[in-house]
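Reminder to self: tokens first, then the designed residues, so the page reads top to bottom the way the pipeline ran.
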């Protein structure tokens, strides 16, 4: 018989904060112990997580397969930093990795990535329409897209739809 057992964090008695040990047993014999992070289903992503998802989305439109090294190069981060970030996203079920190390957005991950990417495009367009230089508009949109409320973004999107292209 195969069993998988888990325990809450021994530090704070909740999930998602510290590694939890998963024990994998076959017929009562412990065959593996693995530390993992457990997250509630509706985990609130940090800005960095949203950036990783958006980067994977953009790269998947340009490359046949997206790897962690592609994400690291695009974002200008070290491979170990990206591996850690991707591990968190994988445990939270925003991305999956196949046996070749190729990254894929899950349905939830794709929804978040598309939302952030749309915000980035719309805010960039708005800033450019009021005279902000393209490079600066891109950089500012990249910061604003993570903190702007849905109500404010929807109003901006509605107003930019009326703008000439």
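Designed residues (165 positions):
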């Amino acid at each position: 018989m195969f069993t998988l057992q888990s325990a809450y964090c021994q530090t704070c008695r909740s999930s998602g904060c510290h590694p939890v040990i998963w024990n994998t047993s076959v017929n009562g014999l412990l065959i593996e112990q693995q530390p993992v992070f457990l997250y509630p289903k509706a985990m609130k992503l940090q800005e960095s997580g949203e950036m990783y998802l958006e980067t994977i989305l953009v790269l998947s439109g340009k490359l046949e397969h997206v790897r962690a090294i592609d994400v690291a190069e695009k974002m200008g981060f070290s491979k170990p930093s990206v591996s850690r970030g991707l591990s968190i996203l994988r445990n939270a079920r925003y991305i999956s990795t196949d046996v070749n190390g190729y990254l894929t957005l899950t349905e939830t991950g794709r929804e978040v990535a598309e939302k952030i990417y749309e915000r980035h495009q719309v805010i960039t367009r708005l800033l450019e329409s009021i005279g902000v230089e393209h490079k600066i508009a891109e950089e500012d949109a990249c910061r604003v897209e993570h903190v702007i409320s849905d109500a404010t973004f929807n109003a901006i999107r509605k107003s930019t739809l009326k703008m000439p292209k």
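Residues 3 and 140 are 49 Å apart (CA to CA).
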